[in-house]
Design a protein that fits this description.
The structure is a homodimer. Chain A is α/β, with parallel strands linked by helices. Helix content of chain A is about 30%, strand content about 20%. Chain A contains nine helices and twelve strands. In chain A, α2 links the parallel β2 and β3. At the A-B interface, α1, α4, α5, α6 and α9 of A face α1, α4, α5, α6 and α9 of B.
């Protein structure tokens, strides 16, 4: 059995009681920290599990899963600890698919995810459209899909959750300010007034952690705001109900 | 302090370790089970909390919160246990707003939610648009908003998570089959081929529970399928990537 266990939003305390139960009964435990920031150290996870936890790299998971996370899953009880709610990240859904193709039974233990936790900013979770991810700028690589996702959602009055790039091996987690720069650069290129300096947005940092930060304001103002450590996300609101505006106002200015 | 603690998807094991910690340190604990089905009994929650849990009705929460859940929150450590991830349901976001307006500090402990767990069907969580809820049919009340939400999402190629009505006090939880009937009735009225008998959809029951059921197929076929006990949800796919089609196929036929 391969059990995909969600670590939830921030640190080792965001795992569910069900997840902990499965973890403790596992023969072998793996974890990956390259898709998102993990707010605790490995030792605390190993204490919870009561056994060693093997940390896998992107290459381990995506290029040689048969030699790593899937190796013992046919005959043993294997757990794989992943950030947030499993199956939200494409890479975890892929592993589940590969396991099933090999005849390995797959179990999933859900946990908290930014996909629903984003409602903490005061916008209704039901009124979000497509979620998009901003990659770090690279020479000759500036995908326009995030801009198009926001524009499409706006056309239906829907809010957009904008996830920010993670390069964990380099210790780089895109900040709210860097995200705003990337969106301004796309606006300069595509000029459809989807994301201007006056666009009202929301920056959120370390959702689920005791020191989480939520700030609402104009893009140009939030760019100067220090949100502290990772992970960060951005929200670009669509049409707001007055109850949403009221809820959001507590995070303004 | 008012702590909104998410009970997560199904039963008492879906609370997070952080949620349990806050629960144990609370002076007074409330819970509500009218917004969704809870898969365990109250006693198990009370054993976890190590103290009595007071169950609140819709009227307690929505009409007289100052006399119930908010009564002691200014001076004491009060916890309010709610289904799924807090703040996703409008009623919980309202209580948070009311508490803050009274000068009560509000804490949130996130947990698993159908909003992200829906990815278990094989469709990408990022590609869902607006979430809609189907109400039980009533004389002279048949809102067209669910139909319009699906149509809007389809126009952008996005999937739709369709939540199904809950009338907990009457023990009524809308089933996949009943939801299909409501959508067919809307189609008959609005005739825009958004939801026909041939529409490929997904029915999901008891996500997060060990006996969860996921079935994909034509609306007319799923209507005859027995999904067992509540809660149920429906998914109407938008444009599917071949990886999504492949992942979904394991739940077909």
């Amino acid at each position: 059995v391969l059990n995909l266990i969600g670590l939830g939003l921030f640190d080792e305390k965001d795992i569910s009681l069900r997840g902990l139960e499965v973890l403790k009964s596992s023969d072998k435990v793996y974890a990956e920290f390259y898709t998102n920031y993990f707010g605790a150290d490995l030792k605390r996870l190993e204490e919870l599990a009561g056994k060693p936890v093997t940390v896998l790299s992107r290459a381990d998971v995506e290029e040689r899963p048969e030699a790593t996370v899937l190796k013992h899953a046919k005959s043993k009880n294997v757990s794989f600890l992943v950030s947030g709610d499993p199956l939200v990240a494409t890479t975890h859904a892929d592993i589940a698919g590969r396991a099933k193709a090999l005849g390995v039974e797959v179990g999933v233990v859900h946990s908290s995810s930014v996909i629903s936790a984003v409602a903490e900013c005061g916008l209704q979770a039901y009124k979000f459209g497509k979620t998009t991810t901003l990659p770090f700028p690279q020479p000759n690589y500036e995908p326009t899909s995030p801009y198009e996702a926001i524009r499409g959602n706006q056309s239906l009055g829907l809010h957009t959750l904008v996830l920010l790039d993670v390069k964990a091996t380099e210790g780089r987690y895109m900040s709210v300010g860097e995200g705003i720069d990337v969106l301004h650069s796309l606006e300069a290129k595509l000029s459809q007034k989807v994301f201007t300096e006056d666009t009202q947005i929301i920056g959120m940092a370390r959702l689920g952690a005791p020191d989480r930060v939520i700030k609402a304001g104009k893009a140009e103002d939030l760019k100067k705001t220090d949100f502290g450590g990772p992970p960060h996300v951005l929200v670009v609101p669509g049409k707001m109900h007055f109850m949403e505006e009221e809820a959001l106002s507590q995070y303004s200015g």
